[in-house]
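Quick start: read one record
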Amino acid sequence: MSDAIMEVDDLSWSKIFEKEGMPVVVMFYSPTCAHCREMEPYFREYAIEYRGKAIFAKANVTSSPYLVKKYGIMSTPTFKFFCNTRPVEEIVGAVYPPLLKKIIEDVMKYGRECIRKSTPLHEITGYG
């Protein structure tokens, strides 16, 4: 895997947000997902192309149950886009690669403004 893509899981998740102000693109995948394997080369290509302008990460859904639950991941691949730690966009499936690229470019272009379109996530840790 290209060093332009971070591999994250439940424990290392917060590391992708360390560079303040940079948009984050995450591909939630499963090792057995054929569509994930189909999209991975494009994701890698875009990670290299936009290195330094956005952070690219991959999260294996089989080893990240907390993230799956927190972000409502129901299918793979799921591409989630974050601004200032908040999810602002999502696309699911083996999408047309130019569409993925266009959304990446839009998130980078409107990075600071995109936070206004997002809502904060509220952690629910149990009933009480």
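The chain has one domain: 5-117.
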